[in-house]
Every structure is written in structure tokens, then in C-alpha cells.
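Key result, reporting period 2: structure in, sequence out.
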């Protein structure tokens, strides 16, 4: 047969170009094809589609009519909305400053605005995958920005130790006189000494118990000590800003402070706790398990209540911890416990072969975790991490129970103003709050989906 083909001049056929991909059948293309596949492909989908359409018709038209069509858009007091059947947007306009800043002095509101603008300016490059100078930008956002924000919001020019712990009478006797060392006040050196001891002790404990690379731990400790000195210098320096006590903060400002602090602290602390729970060192593993199970077994509202009202009863006389700081610590520790379990789920999903391959290459514990295991584990649990962040952002409303007026708390406080007491004021305020919370939470959700698609999370090759 081959001889006959050769005589006829017919040789073997080898295709040198790939065939172009065929288009899907017309029934599966476009909007009609998508609807046929996802909405009416079977009895169950048809039933769910009908119910969904009925639910949308039941909710959306009245909502649009209340918020837009029948709404009142102009007015100076309740008289404009007393007979209205729609939203009273002049109420939101009149109370907008209170919703955003709380009772922050009007003349000083440029300072929160500067913090918002600087935070957005530094956060944007971190969210853009191809933005340059990622490491420098991360140091500025996570290291320098909190210092600048703290000084702008509080006014600075005070002892950070006294702000956190309060003033003890014997301590005030020695620190009070204006003597200086190397041009810096005694208050600065006291703050730096106490904080340095804590940082060095913590980093030494990590290096000892978790077997970290001494050089890497030393570099981290040096960076932390540098940022600490920068923070103390900024707080001790007189910038001429009017001091604003934390009880005057409120609104969206407090919501963002609590949420961002909880998010930034809970992720690295949760990673350390997850690694500690999987550690082979009995002391570290036992501490991590006790910490995680304790905080996961207590409601957040109980944590806030204890930190605000019960904790001062256990402190020695003369000691007082700032109320907002107590809430921040409670929220951060609470979120870290949940974050630890999310990260632990990602660590358990990594095959054992990844650890063995890293060991075969001679990588140490921290190199294995930082370069091999954690990047894969965190990629797998991106939805869980962002879900924890969204839940934390919404849980900030619980700080109202301890007399800290966050965004929702300020909305509720504005209802008591008799100048805007109407039948629609309550619904207008909550509708405005719902829109703001939806914007933040939906933005986090969509960005996590973008990161997940970019990293191809969930795909198996």
C-alpha cells in the first residue's frame, strides 16, 4: 500500500498550522445563549429565575421610588420633609459632616481629610499589580503612614507612653521637669527605652522559639526600632496642631480607624498564630491554641465591653488606658484569632511534597514558609481572608456599645435632633448608611475576585 502511495506521489500528511477555534453554536452565544444556559436550562433554574424576578420586582421599584422619585432634595429643616413619602436627603446633607468626622472640630477637619487623601494615595499603588517600588510603598503605608495619621489626628506634642498608659504620679515627678538629653526630652527617652525593650524581647523570642534566621530577625528589629524612633520623635515634636482628644472622634473616621487597624494587625498576627498552631514546639503550639480558641469562643461585644468597663478595674491606681486604644486592641486580637484559622486552612491544603522539596533544596524554616508555602497557602484562602476583612469592617458598628460613635452610631445619634424629626428621617439615615457600607464591602469583594483571577486561585493543572 505504501508503494502504491509512493508511486502516485501521495506522501504522509503533516499539519503545520493549528486549526482556528470554532465558534460555539449560535444557541450558546451572546445574552440569549447565556440566559438559556444559566436561567432556563432546567426546571430548577426556571423556578429560581421566576422567584428571583418576583423578588426584584417586589424590592427594587419601591426602593427606587423612595430614594429617588419621591425623595426630597432641598430644604433647611424638618418642614421640607414632614409630609414627604420619600427620602429626606436634606437631612443627610445637614448632618454629613457629623457622619464623616463625628464631633471633630470643624476648623481642624482638614487633618482627617489629609489622612484620607494620604491613605488613598499610598494604598492605590499597593493595589495596582504592575506599580513600581512596591517594597518602598509598603514601608511607607504600613510604617510611616500610621505615624503621620496618628500625629495629624491627635495633634502630637505629648508622650506616647503617657497617651497609652496614662500618667503615674511618681513617674510624672521625674519626667515632668524639662531636662533634656542630646536635645530630646526625658519623656522621649522613657518612651523609647520601654518600647525598645518590648520590641527586642519580642523579636528575640520569635528567633528562639520559631527558629528564625537571626539576620532576618535582626533586620526586622532594626526596621521596627527605626520606625519606633520616628514615631516617638513625631509625637514629641510640637507641630503647632491643636490637640484633639479621641472622644471627639466619630463617624466614618472612627469606622476606618478601627477597621484598618484591625485588618493591618490581624493578618500578620493571624499568620504567626497559624504557624504557631502547626509548630512542633509544645509551648508555642499550646499558646497559639489557647489564644485562638479563647478569642474565638468569646463574642466581640463581650470583648469590647470587658476592655472598656472591666479592664480599668484590674489596673493599679493611677493607670488609665485610652478608650479608643482598648477597643482597637480588642478588635485586632479578636480578628487575628479568626484570621489564624483561615490561614491554617490554607496551610493544610499545601501538599507535603512542597515541604519536602524545600527541604531538599536546603531551605530553612522561614525560607520555606516565606518563599514556598505561605504564598501558595494565602493564594488558596483569598476568599476567606477577604470575607474576614468584610466581616470585621461591618463589626465595627459594635463599638457603639462602649460609647464610641462610629459611622452608624453617628447616624443613630443624628435621629435625636428635633429639627429633623420626621417619619422618613430614620429610613433615610439607614439607607444612606447601607449605601456607604455596600460601597466599601463590595469594593473589597470585587478586588479580591480580581486578585484571585490574576493568581489563578482554585484552578488545578
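The corresponding designed sequence is given below.
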Amino acid at each position: 500500500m505504501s508503494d502504491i502511495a509512493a508511486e502516485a506521489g501521495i506522501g504522509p500528511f503533516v499539519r503545520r498550522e493549528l486549526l482556528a477555534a470554532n465558534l460555539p453554536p449560535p444557541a450558546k452565544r451572546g445574552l440569549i445563549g447565556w440566559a438559556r444556559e444559566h436561567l432556563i436550562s432546567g426546571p430548577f433554574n426556571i423556578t429560581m429565575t421566576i422567584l428571583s424576578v418576583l423578588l426584584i420586582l417586589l424590592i427594587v421599584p419601591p426602593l427606587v421610588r423612595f430614594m429617588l422619585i419621591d425623595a426630597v432634595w432641598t430644604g433647611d429643616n424638618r418642614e421640607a420633609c414632614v409630609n414627604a413619602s420619600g427620602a429626606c436627603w436634606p437631612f443627610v446633607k445637614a448632618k454629613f459632616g457629623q457622619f464623616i468626622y463625628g464631633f471633630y472640630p470643624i476648623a481642624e477637619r482638614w487633618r482627617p481629610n489629609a489622612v484620607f487623601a494620604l491613605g488613598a494615595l499610598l494604598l492605590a499603588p499597593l493595589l495596582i499589580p504592575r506599580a513600581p517600588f512596591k517594597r518602598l510603598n509598603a514601608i511607607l503605608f504600613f510604617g510611616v503612614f500610621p505615624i503621620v495619621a496618628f500625629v495629624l489626628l491627635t495633634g502630637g506634642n505629648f508622650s506616647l507612653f503617657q497617651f497609652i498608659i496614662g500618667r503615674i504620679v511618681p513617674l510624672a515627678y521625674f519626667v515632668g521637669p524639662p531636662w533634656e538629653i542630646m536635645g530630646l526630652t526625658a519623656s522621649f527617652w522613657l518612651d523609647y527605652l520601654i518600647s525598645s525593650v518590648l520590641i527586642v524581647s519580642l523579636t528575640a523570642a520569635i528567633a528562639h522559639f520559631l527558629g528564625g534566621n537571626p539576620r532576618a530577625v535582626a533586620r526586622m528589629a532594626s526596621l521596627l526600632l527605626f520606625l519606633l524612633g520616628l514615631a516617638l520623635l513625631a509625637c514629641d515634636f510640637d507641630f503647632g496642631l491643636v490637640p484633639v482628644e479621641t472622644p471627639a472622634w466619630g463617624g466614618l473616621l472612627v469606622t476606618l480607624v478601627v477597621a484598618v487597624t484591625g485588618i493591618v494587625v490581624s493578618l500578620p498576627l493571624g499568620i504567626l498564630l497559624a504557624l504557631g498552631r502547626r509548630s512542633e514546639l509544645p509551648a508555642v503550639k499550646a499558646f497559639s491554641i489557647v489564644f485562638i480558641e479563647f478569642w474565638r469562643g468569646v463574642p466581640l461585644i463581650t470583648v469590647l465591653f470587658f476592655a472598656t468597663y472591666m479592664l480599668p478595674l484590674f489596673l493599679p491606681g493611677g493607670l488609665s488606658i485610652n478608650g479608643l486604644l482598648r477597643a482597637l486592641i480588642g478588635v485586632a486580637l479578636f480578628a487575628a484569632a479568626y484570621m489564624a484559622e483561615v490561614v491554617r486552612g490554607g496551610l493544610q491544603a499545601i501538599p507535603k511534597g512542597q515541604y519536602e522539596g524545600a527541604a531538599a533544596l536546603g531551605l530553612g524554616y522561614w525560607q520555606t514558609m516565606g518563599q514556598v508555602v505561605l504564598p501558595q497557602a494565602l493564594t488558596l484562602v483569598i476568599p476567606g481572608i477577604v470575607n474576614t476583612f468584610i466581616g470585621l469592617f461591618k463589626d465595627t458598628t459594635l463599638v457603639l456599645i462602649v460609647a464610641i460613635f462610629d459611622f452608624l452610631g453617628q447616624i443613630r445619634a443624628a435621629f435625636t435632633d428635633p429639627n429633623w424629626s420626621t417619619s422618613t428621617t430614620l429610613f433615610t439615615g439607614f439607607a444612606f448608611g447601607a449605601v456607604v457600607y455596600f460601597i466599601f464591602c463590595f469594593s473589597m469583594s470585587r478586588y479580591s475576585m480580581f486578585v484571585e483571577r490574576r493568581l489563578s486561585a482554585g484552578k488545578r493543572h
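Confidence is low (pLDDT under 50) at residues 166-183. The longest helix spans residues 425-454. This case is discussed further under Risks and Mitigation.
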